[in-house]
């Protein structure tokens, strides 16, 4: 299997050009064809010599994302199930907002984190995606938006998988996305979400980026979080919070906490009170997420009154909090649902 051309950063393409007897600027031309002109084949790179195009085709391949399923919501959300070269499948979502188009990308085929309310973990982890396979999702989305003269304005790395368990590929992807000679997505318009892989929270804090960090917390204490998120047994609640305090001290950037509200499990007044106490001294924002019903799971949605009561308690204690606007609710919007259905039928 040849490496994907999208696996390489601009600097790596420049090095490749030099190592193949070409001036470094040829790497920049290749990068431009990939991310500005967005070609589908090396033969389309017409300002490169035929020999160089043939050499590229010999050494690299384009990522093949073939569309298995496309679902369009009444609210404009579009969810894709893409097939990969090895017959695995991944999900990518285009979300339309009044401030622009956001792309939710996947970093792994499946997931091993094991959150008990999530469809992504059904079937476990199959493999990591390469940087190029993550990148191709955004390029594919941008090609779709090109048809209506729109652009990708923000990226959320919140699809299936744990980005910080595929750290190097995720960071390579991010460096490509923010490059001014490529898609040029503003760093503050990108959010990467983790379940709390402690060593890589420290590593990410030291990256010196403006990219936003979100943490899937889902519980205010160690015991309850371990029941909902088995990863908490490997990286306990207090260790995660210590890593986040390091991140705050190092970057000064606000952290987003994602909290899935599950009926009768983690959504009561005492949970809100405890969460507020834990977060009271942190620069943060809490995003409350009424849990999507997943047929394979037994959890139920929190009642509207309990959702608003949870929000009120946090707000009264000075915590910045919002309730996530639901999108794509009519098209199996929860991460992993579409893939799980495909696996079942396959």
From TrEMBL:
Residues 97-330 form the Radical SAM core domain. It catalyses: adenosine(2503) in 23S rRNA + 2 reduced [2Fe-2S]-[ferredoxin] + 2 S-adenosyl-L-methionine = 2-methyladenosine(2503) in 23S rRNA + 5'-deoxyadenosine + L-methionine + 2 oxidized [2Fe-2S]-[ferredoxin] + S-adenosyl-L-homocysteine; adenosine(37) in tRNA + 2 reduced [2Fe-2S]-[ferredoxin] + 2 S-adenosyl-L-methionine = 2-methyladenosine(37) in tRNA + 5'-deoxyadenosine + L-methionine + 2 oxidized [2Fe-2S]-[ferredoxin] + S-adenosyl-L-homocysteine. The keyword Chaperone does not apply. It is an enzyme of class 2 (transferase). S-adenosyl-L-methionine binds at residues 161-162, 193, 216-218, 292. Its cofactor is [4Fe-4S] cluster. Binds 1 [4Fe-4S] cluster. The cluster is coordinated with 3 cysteines and an exchangeable S-adenosyl-L-methionine. [4Fe-4S] cluster binds at residues 111, 115, 118. Its main location: cytoplasm. Signal peptide: none annotated. The keyword Nucleotide-binding does not apply. One of its GO terms (biological process) is tRNA methylation. It is found in: Cytoplasm. Its EC number is 2.1.1.192. Keywords: 4Fe-4S, Cytoplasm, Disulfide bond, Iron, Iron-sulfur, Metal-binding, Methyltransferase, rRNA processing, S-adenosyl-L-methionine, Transferase, tRNA processing. Reaction proceeds by a ping-pong mechanism involving intermediate methylation of a conserved cysteine residue. Specifically methylates position 2 of adenine 2503 in 23S rRNA and position 2 of adenine 37 in tRNAs. Belongs to the radical SAM superfamily. RlmN family. This is Probable dual-specificity RNA methyltransferase RlmN. The gene is rlmN.
């Amino acid at each position: 299997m040849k490496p994907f051309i999208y696996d390489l950063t601009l600097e790596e393409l420049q090095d490749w050009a030099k190592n193949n007897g070409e001036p470094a600027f040829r790497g920049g031309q290749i990068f431009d064809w990939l991310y500005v002109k967005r070609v589908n084949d090396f033969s389309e790179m017409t300002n490169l010599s035929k020999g160089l195009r043939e050499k590229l085709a010999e050494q690299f391949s384009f990522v093949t994302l073939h569309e298995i399923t496309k679902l369009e919501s009444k609210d404009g959300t579009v969810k894709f199930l893409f097939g990969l070269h090895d017959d695995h499948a991944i999900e990518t979502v285009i979300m339309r907002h009044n401030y622009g188009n956001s792309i939710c990308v996947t970093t792994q085929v499946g997931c091993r984190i094991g959150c008990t309310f999530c469809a992504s973990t059904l079937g476990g982890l199959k493999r990591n995606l390469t940087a190029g396979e993550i990148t191709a999702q955004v390029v594919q989305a941008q090609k779709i938006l090109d048809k209506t003269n729109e652009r990708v304005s923000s990226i959320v790395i919140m699809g299936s998988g744990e980005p910080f368990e595929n750290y190097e590929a995720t960071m390579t992807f991010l460096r490509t996305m923010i490059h001014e000679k490529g898609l040029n997505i503003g760093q503050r318009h990108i959010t990467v979400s983790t379940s709390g892989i402690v060593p890589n929270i420290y590593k990410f804090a030291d990256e010196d980026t403006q990219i936003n960090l979100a943490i899937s917390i889902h519980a205010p204490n160690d015991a309850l979080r371990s029941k909902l998120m088995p990863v908490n047994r490997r990286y306990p609640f207090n260790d995660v919070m210590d890593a986040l305090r390091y991140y705050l001290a190092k970057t000064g950037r606000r952290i987003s906490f994602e909290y899935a509200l599950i009926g009768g499990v983690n959504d009561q007044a005492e949970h809100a009170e405890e969460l507020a106490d834990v977060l009271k001294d942190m620069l943060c924002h809490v995003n409350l997420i009424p849990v999507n019903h997943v047929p394979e799971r037994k959890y139920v949605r929190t009642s509207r009154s309990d959702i608003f009561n949870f929000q009120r308690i946090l707000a009264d204690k000075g915590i910045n909090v919002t309730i996530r606007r639901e999108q794509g609710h009519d098209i199996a919007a929860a991460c992993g649902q579409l893939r799980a259905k495909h696996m079942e039928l396959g």
